[in-house]
Design brief:
Strand 1 and strand 2 form a beta hairpin. Helix 4 packs parallel to helix 5. It is built from ten helices and twelve strands. By secondary structure, the protein is an alpha+beta fold. Adenosine-5'-triphosphate (ATP) binds next to helix 8 and helix 9. The site of magnesium ion (MG) has 5 residues, from helix 8. It is an enzyme of class 2 (transferase). This is histidine kinase. Its EC number is 2.7.13.3.
């Protein structure tokens, strides 16, 4: 369970905290140790000063010996010299180091309040102070105090021991905290990893708790959305495949049926020609269906190429209307076109033509004789808006949300007269969206339908 990420996070946390703690402890330790050492030095000097004060009152042999006896019972040693540095009394045996200190002292420079002579406790056996005995503003002698540096070492060692114990406790607490913290972060991550593994294995419904309000919660929410999307896509794909097989089965049944009849040979030449014509039509429709499906597949794989160029939109509209007009006139449909001449667009003219022809073709299919179809182009600051309206049968409200879906037809039966492939609007929508535009529909049953295509303006676009 102790995975790489929690290890990494934990390790980093730990190192950082350790560095900070070490620094803080070092500062604290140094300050505390220095304070304690200073206190020992001050105490020693104060003790020497007390002796010298007593001696300043009574500078005689009795008092001197009294001081020496007092210190012989204590942890300290006292050496009292006369003004020239010759030893008068001492409490403990005099060692070479003491003699060195006394010999190296500049008596004349000694301030009345005394001073610390030796403070290098890590190297020396004794620390030392000197408190001059000043009578009538003249130095009469010196009280040298010595303290064994082992005492200081003991204090410092004791402090070190305490710090080691506290340090160890801190490290253990840090490790525990880091462990819990990194688990807190990595546990949901692990869950998410498992969830995504499940996703890639094809189990598209994952349950993640997304009640966290932080980035991890957001990630979990995204993964849940992803799984929902995948689930939806899977269903869509299944439905799509089902529709395609249905779409293919019908014409193929026709083809086989008519081919069978023809091959039986017991039909007239006229019938035969009629059936061959049906077979031809069905095959053509199949070819269109497959071509359209292939086109959509390319769009899905983003292998669909749009060759944008600067186009005078009016010219494009003119070409399109001239192409569709004969078919509309044949059906006795009035066709009105309004398009300002100065509109420029940056589009793939072939593709947009395909879109508009499909919408017009739909309008033609669903508008009865004598009615009217209009095409109007306008532009605002950002967009070119093309609206194609018909006075046809309209689209039922419940079908409106789906008409851009693949293979969706309002008229479900696939009659050869009205039946398109149901892919035209799906392709149109993809093309327009590839252009960064939108396509919308408004329709009222029995009154007519309008398709509104919005494209970004050419000049502002480039
Ligand atoms: N102007 C319209 N009036 C009424 N219904 C429409 C209109 N345009 C589209 N529809 C409905 O929307 C459905 C989808 O249109 P779409 O163009 O995608 O498919 P199609 O025309 O049936 O087939 P294809 O365009 O692939 O030959 C149509 O089958 C039709 O029912
Ligand atoms: Mg169509």
């Amino acid at each position: 369970m102790f995975n790489k990420l929690s290890l990494k996070i934990g390790f980093l946390f730990f190192i950082f905290i350790l560095i900070i703690e070490t620094f803080l402890y070092f500062v604290l330790y140094t300050n505390l140790a220095n304070e304690q050492i200073e206190e020992v030095m001050d105490n020693l000097l104060a003790r020497g000063n007390t002796h010298s004060a007593v001696l300043e009152e009574n500078f005689n042999q009795t008092t001197l010996e009294h001081v020496a006896i007092m210190e012989s019972e204590s942890d300290f040693a006292v050496v009292i010299t006369d003004v020239s540095g010759d030893v008068i009394v001492h409490s403990d045996p005099i060692e070479q180091e003491m003699i060195d200190v006394i010999a190296h002292t500049d008596y004349k420079q000694m301030p009345d309040e005394g001073k610390v002579l030796e403070e290098r406790w890590p190297e020396k056996k004794y620390i030392a102070t000197d408190s001059p005995i000043t009578i009538n503003e003249e130095h009469q002698g010196h009280v040298f105090m010595f303290a064994d540096t082992n005492n200081i070492r003991r204090i410092v060692d004791h402090l070190s021991d305490q710090f080691i114990v506290v340090g160890l406790i801190t490290i253990i607490l840090t490790i525990i905290t880091v462990f819990i913290l990194s688990r807190l972060i990595t546990k949901p991550l692990l869950k998410m990893k498992e969830a995504t593994e499940q996703l890639s294995k094809g189990r598209h419904k994952v349950e993640l708790h997304t009640d966290r309000r932080d980035e991890l919660g957001e990630l979990a929410a995204s993964i849940t959305t992803l799984s929902d999307d995948l689930e939806r896509l899977k269903n869509e794909r299944n439905e799509f495949l089902a529709s395609i097989s249905h779409e293919l089965r019908t014409p193929l049944t026709y083809l086989k049926g008519y081919a069978d009849i023809i091959s039986r040979g017991d039909i007239s030449g006229n019938e035969r020609n009629e059936y061959i014509e049906i077979i031809r039509e069905e095959t053509e429709q199949l070819v269109v269906l497959v071509k359209n499906l292939f086109e959509l597949a390319k769009m899905d794989q983003n292998r669909f190429i749009i060759n944008k160029e600067n186009v005078v939109f009016g010219n494009l509209i003119h070409t399109i209307t001239e192409r569709i007009r004969p078919a509309l006139e044949e059906k006795n449909i009035t066709f009105s076109v309004r398009c300002p001449s100065h509109i420029n667009a940056h589009i793939d003219p072939e593709r947009i033509q395909q879109v508009l022809l499909n919408i017009l073709d739909n309008a033609k299919k669903h508008t009865s004789q004598g009615k009217r179809i209009s095409l109007e182009v306008s532009q605002n600051k950002r967009d070119i808006i093309t609206m194609i309206s018909d006075e046809g049968e309209g689209i039922p409200e419940e079908d409106l949300p789906y008409i851009f879906e693949r293979l969706y037809r309002v008229e479900k039966s696939r009659s050869r007269l009205s039946g398109g492939t149901g892919l035209g609007l799906a392709i149109a929508k993809e093309i327009v969206e590839f252009h960064g535009g939108t396509i919308k529909v408004r329709s009222k049953l029995g009154e007519g339908t309008s398709f509104i295509m919005t494209l970004q303006r050419g000049d502002s676009h480039e």
